[in-house]
């Protein structure tokens, strides 16, 4: 279910990586929070909630091959999504101004 957009910060965990994909620019995973973050080529960033490590490992498999990640996202990953929201990253001028 699409949740309301949220203002916040990118994950930038040790799992962050740029990818060569038709659909995405970067991917990241926070194992404790079980969030997968995808930055799409459209410029939008989404957080997908309650994502298991096995799903993240599939992302890595396609990212390491350098192909097929966009297809995986569009054909398979979207069927696994429950809750997600668009992340609107804080800009330096808006941080701490009560947004969120």
Short description:
By secondary structure, the chain is of the alpha+beta class. It has helices spanning 53-65, 69-80, and strands at residues 6-8, 17-18, 24-30, 35-40, 45-48, 84-89.
Strand content bin: 25-35%
**How many domains comprise the coordinates?**
1
Form type: globular
Largest beta-sheet characterization: 6 strands, mixed
- The H/E string reads EEEEEHHE
User: What is the rounded distance between the termini?
Assistant: 19 Å
Number of beta-strand segments: 6
Q: For the largest beta sheet, what order do the strands appear in spatially? A: 1-6-5-4-3-2
Q: Roughly what is the average pLDDT, rounded to an integer?
A: 89
Low-confidence stretches: none
Set out the fold topology.
Elements: E1 6-8, E2 17-18, E3 24-30, E4 35-40, E5 45-48, H1 53-65, H2 69-80, E6 84-89
Parallel strand pairs: 1-6
Antiparallel strand pairs: 2-3, 3-4, 4-5, 5-6
Helix pairs in contact: 1-2
């Amino acid at each position: 279910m699409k949740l309301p957009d949220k203002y916040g910060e990118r994950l930038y965990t040790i799992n962050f990586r740029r990818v060569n994909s038709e659909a995405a620019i970067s991917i990241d995973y926070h194992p404790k929070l079980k969030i997968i973050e995808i930055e799409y080529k459209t410029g939008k960033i989404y957080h997908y909630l309650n994502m298991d490590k096995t799903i993240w490992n599939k992302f890595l498999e396609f990212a390491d091959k350098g192909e097929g990640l966009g297809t995986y996202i569009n054909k398979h990953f979207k069927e696994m999504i429950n809750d997600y929201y668009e992340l609107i990253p804080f800009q330096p001028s808006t941080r701490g101004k009560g947004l969120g």
